[in-house]
Design a protein that fits this description.
Bound molecules: flavin-adenine dinucleotide, iron/sulfur cluster, FE2/S2 (inorganic) cluster
Radius of gyration of chain A: 13 Å
Structural class of chain A: mainly beta
Strand content of chain B: 15-25%
Order of helices and strands of chain A: EEEEEEEEEE
Strand order of the largest sheet of chain A: 2-3-4-8
Distance between the termini of chain A: 8 Å
Number of helices of chain B: 26
Largest sheet of chain A: 4 strands, antiparallel
Helix content of chain B: 25-40%
Number of helices of chain A: 0
Oligomer: heterodimer
Shape of chain A: globular
Strand order of the largest sheet of chain B: 10-17-11-12-13
Number of strands of chain A: 10
Strand content of chain A: 35-45%
Distance between the termini of chain B: 51 Å
Number of strands of chain B: 38
Helix content of chain A: under 10%
Largest interface: A-B, 41 and 30 residues
Chain lengths: 102, 810
């Protein structure tokens, strides 16, 4: 059963930045775009597990720090020509609080 | 399909492109892997590649394409009546269409002892593993056969540390591809690498109890051997087809549609015989794959025609190319160029004004051009007198550079022999798809994706097509896909319109994306801080992780930390601090870098602030080993200790580092100072190199180690230490103000020319002083230790701690 878990406040995450959540199954990266949308992905690039949380965030994408694959924050999948997806978690914002479905 | 190798899988890939849903595909492969690039087994053996790197399609790929792969299952029977194939373990599948692509087997000499353990062929991953294992425990390897495969095996085994002897029945190497002079050059090159040769030697018996121990030759001589690699030829693997009564001769006989004698059974690869030909190189097999796929897909029915192939040897540092016939006769004319001292030999064989053969050793640049002339049977009488000097010299210029040679190549000239990719095809892909890197060209065209020997050529085509844009030095092209403006446009707009933030800049220049991308943001951020030191905010979210975290990210997501060690001169206290930090934080690797610093590798991100805090306490600050900025100033011991030293190079180096540390530059910037022209600090491959001479200091600029080594240009000579500092500051400042982001000084100086730099720095003394002044002013804002801010002032604290912890079992 997955549940909505409150993980923090919107202001905890820098705009165009990210924060890590530790979980029992590895880190999850929370991203906040320039337009204050929040997304969550497993912090592992589909290429060679690079920590996506450390990438540069632009639009609704993050560029992996290791070999510059561009990963869409909306579904966790690499933009062509690269292929593969990082696990994606639903996120919602209520009253500037961030909830993650996990 | 039977056979999961290069020809068969290429056919499947082509088929998927043409008609992805036409068939349910099932594949039997005797090897326990997906499909790999067999050609690259040689570089794997030589330790230049790993097995992972040579996988073409891993098991996941088969799943993604809905292909059933029975890996590790050898087919033992084809039942044509019932249209089914049966594997050793009983697995069977039925077919509507069958493709046989079983390749070939290494030919094992039928001599006594040929089956002893330690006697192997060189064909698959298993063979390579056996060789690598032997290299660990055993000493003496003997390779029988001095053809392409044998020499690549010998080279690899030698690099793995074995004592290697190549035994060959003829009196010269690669006699089918090389004439005597070229073979001699090759032999002496390989001998200089420690490989021994026994020519004119007929192997008679392999001796040993159960493992090989010696080889005996026909003349009675014997040599020791712990490993014997037979590379005397290959035999098409058609036994299975023969048992099923398909027409076979020296291979499975196929028509020009790749059909065997059974209209439901196709065959491609080394197992086939087409007309009187059998095959041993991939280029024609990839042609077969295209033909076969078009037939299977029932689209654009192609026909196979036999073509000439050319040969290259994949031994690093040996350039060799041959095609066509190699030894002339009465009917032919040989044109020969020989420069044994430089290891260059070229021979072109002409018959009726046409090229019928080429042998090149040492300089193979024009190989593909000659090969094109050969294949197209071009009449070369007009160019005969220039032919040997290559395509670039056909024009009127006396000495064409590489670029001219590329320009002179016709669009039909084949660049990649393995995949039959022409220059025109590469250029078109580069332009139409906006490709910028070798990898992109590989992905889109397959050029240089197989044996890799044309990599240099593909890079040159890239460089030629992109002009100065190539190799990280963007120039006339737009900054990135977010805009049509160039780097120079942006820099101009920033100063002219007094733009002081990323947002203002993107607005003013009508960026197409909300907040740029990972290419433009770091560039724009740099241009802003370089233009307005102290006045604009350094946008850390537009910096690559290393510059944001002030450490270098490693492949496993940990970081490396390099404290500054001024001029490479340290103290016992500093070393103690570093040692204590390494102990306390359990840092797994401590490494001395090429720039005379100490690298602590494997630091966990959350430990970084504490590590820095401890280093700060020991008096050390960030070494900026991660920055597009000043990295290190390397020094030799110089006059302080060295008996040859003419000036105090350590002191000069430390002073330069104290002056320049913390500066941001378009790309990394390295300095070195040597105490005399012996140049122990390697100052002539640095961005700014200082070499002491009796009467003062020589200043060198724009050197580069790395992929393409570039030796510095001499800027000028100065007398005093003050001048060294002033020229250094001024040079860094023009570079900071005018180069494009990510453009190293070497590329920048090549783009704008040395005379321009001399004019700005040497001739215009007022200008030089002003530049140096601007440099020093910007340093006031730049010289803040980023570690201290984070270790004790809580800057960017959120970077280092997790937001929270969540668990499934809550
Ligand atoms: C070390 C090395 C270096 C080389 N270098 C070059 C080079 O530089 N340039 C070049 O052009 N070529 C080179 N070649 C040759 C090139 O690799 C071959 O031409 C090419 O691999 C042949 O492709 P293929 O599909 O016909 O056979 P393979 O690639 O050998 O594939 C055949 C596959 O079928 C499988 N198989 C066989 N029988 C059965 C069965 N009964 N059931 C199930 N599976 C079966 C085999 O296990 C094998 O995996 C090199 C080869 C080697 C070994
Ligand atoms: S460069 Fe000259 S002064 Fe410096 S260590 Fe070498 S020999 Fe000595
Ligand atoms: S690990 Fe992300 S691009 Fe390679």
């Amino acid at each position: 059963m997955s549940d909505w878990i409150k993980v923090g406040k919107l202001s905890d995450i820098p705009r165009q930045g990210s924060r890590i959540i530790n979980s029992d199954e590895g880190d999850i990266a929370l991203f906040r775009t320039i337009d204050d949308e929040v997304f969550a992905l497993r912090d592992e690039c589909p290429h060679e597990k690079g920590p996506l949380s450390q990438g540069i965030i632009h639009g609704k994408n993050v560029t992996c720090p290791l070999h510059s694959w561009v990963i869409s924050l909306e579904d966790g999948c690499a933009l062509p020509p690269d292929e593969g997806c990082a696990t994606h978690f639903p996120v919602k914002l209520e009253d500037k609080n961030v909830f993650l479905k996990y | 399909m039977i056979g999961n190798g290069m020809a068969g899988m290429r056919t499947i890939e082509e088929l998927l492109k043409l008609a992805p849903d036409a068939y349910d595909i099932t594949i039997f492969g005797a090897e326990p892997f997906g499909n790999y690039n067999r050609i690259m087994l040689s570089p794997v053996l030589a330790g230049e590649k790993t097995i992972d790197e040579i996988m073409i399609n891993d098991l996941q790929w088969y799943k993604n394409n809905n292909i059933t792969l029975h890996a590790n299952k050898t087919v033992v029977e084809i039942n044509r009546a019932e249209k089914k194939v049966i594997a050793e373990d009983g697995t069977f599948e039925s077919y509507d269409r069958l493709l046989i692509a079983t390749g070939s087997n290494p030919f094992m000499l039928p001599v006594p002892g040929g089956k002893l353990s330690g006697v192997i062929g060189f064909r698959d991953i298993h063979d390579v593993d056996t060789m690598l294992d032997s290299a660990k425990t055993k000493k003496k390897a003997v390779v029988i056969g001095a053809g392409l495969l044998g020499l690549e095996a010998a080279n690899g085994l030698k690099l793995q540390g074995m004592d290697v002897t190549v035994v060959h029945i003829m009196d010269c190497l690669m006699e089918r591809q090389l004439d005597k002079p070229a073979a001699k050059l090759l032999q002496s090159e390989l001998e200089s690498r420690g490989i021994k040769f026994l020519l004119d030697a007929r192997t008679q018996e392999i001796l040993g109890d159960d493992h090989v121990s010696r080889i005996r030759f026909a003349d009675g001589a014997e040599i020791e051997a712990d490993l014997v690699v037979m590379a005397v030829g290959i035999r098409p693997n058609f036994e299975l087809a023969q048992k099923a009564d398909l027409e076979c001769d020296r291979g499975i006989v196929v028509s020009e549609t790749m059909l065997s004698s059974d209209p439901s059974v196709y065959s491609v690869g080394e197992c086939v015989q087409f007309e009187e030909h059998t095959y041993g190189l991939v280029a024609p097999l990839f042609d077969m794959a295209k033909v076969c796929a078009s037939q299977l897909a029932d689209i654009d029915h192609k026909h196979y025609v036999h073509t000439e192939t050319s040969t290259k040897l994949k031994v690093s540092g040996v350039d060799l190319f041959s095609a066509g016939i190699i030894n002339g006769n009465e009917a032919t004319d040989d044109i020969i160029f020989q420069d044994p001292a430089n290891g260059v030999y070229k021979k072109i064989i002409l018959q009726d004004h046409k090229i019928v053969g080429v042998v090149l050793y040492g300089d193979t640049f024009d190989g593909s051009w000659y090969f094109e002339l050969l294949r197209e049977a071009t009449d070369v009488s007009e160019m005969r007198s220039h032919l040997l000097f290559g395509q670039a010299h056909l024009g009127d210029s006396g000495h064409g550079g590489v670029n001219d040679a590329i320009a002179a190549m016709s669009d039909d000239a084949e660049i990649c022999g393995c995949n039959g990719v022409t220059k025109g095809c590469v250029t078109k892909a580069i332009i139409e798809k906006g490709l910028q890197t070798l990898d992109e060209v590989r992905a889109h065209t397959k050029a240089s994706a197989s044996c890799g020997s044309c990599t240099g050529l593909v890079e040159q085509v890239l460089a030629h097509t992109l002009g100065a844009d190539y190799s990280d030095s963007p120039s006339e092209k737009p900054v990135c896909k977010c805009t049509d403006y160039t780097h120079d446009d942006v820099r101009k707009a920033i100063t002219e319109q007094k733009l002081t933030s990323l947002k203002a800049l993107m607005n003013a220049m009508e960026w197409r994306t909300v907040d740029g991308c990972a290419s433009c943001r770091p560039a724009l951020n740099y241009y802003l801080i370089a233009a307005w030191p102290g006045k604009v905010e350094d946008d850390y979210r537009s910096r690559f992780i290393n510059e944001r975290i002030h450490a270098n990210i490693q492949k496993d997501g940990t970081y490396s930390v390099i404290p500054r060690i001024w001029g490479g001169v340290t103290t016992a206290d500093e070393l103690r601090t570093i040692a204590d930090v390494a102990d306390k934080y359990e840092i797994p690797t401590v490494k001395i870098t090429g720039g005379q610093r100490i690298d602590l590798l494997g630091v966990k991100k959350e430990d970084l602030p504490a590590v820095w805090g401890d280093l700060n306490k020991g008096g050390m600050i960030s070494g900026h080993a991660y920055s597009k900025g000043l990295r290190t100033v390397k020094t030799c011991v110089g006059q302080e200790w060295c008996r040859f030293g003419t000036q105090k190079s350590m002191q000069m180096g430390i002073e330069l580092e104290k002056m320049t540390w913390g500066s941001w530059t378009p790309a990394k910037f390295k300095i070195a100072v040597s105490g005399c022209p012996r140049n122990c600090a390697e100052a002539t491959i640095k961005d700014f190199g200082v070499v002491a001479v009796d009467s003062g200091w020589e200043l060198h600029i724009a050197g580069n180690g790395g992929i393409k080594v570039r030796v510095t240009d001499l800027l000028c000579k100065v007398k005093t230490e003050d001048e060294v500092r002033e020229y250094c500051g001024a040079f860094m400042q023009v570079y900071r103000e005018e180069a494009h982001y990510l453009e190293r000084t070497a590329h920048w100086v090549e783009r704008i020319g040395l005379p321009y730099v001399k004019q700005r720095i040497v001739e215009d003394s007022e200008g030089r002083k002003a530049l140096n002044k601007r440099f020093l002013e910007s340093q006031v804002y730049a010289q803040v230790d980023p570690w201290a801010e984070r270790a004790s002032e809580g800057v960017d604290a959120h970077e280092f701690v997790a937001l929270t912890q969540i668990n499934k079992q809550q």
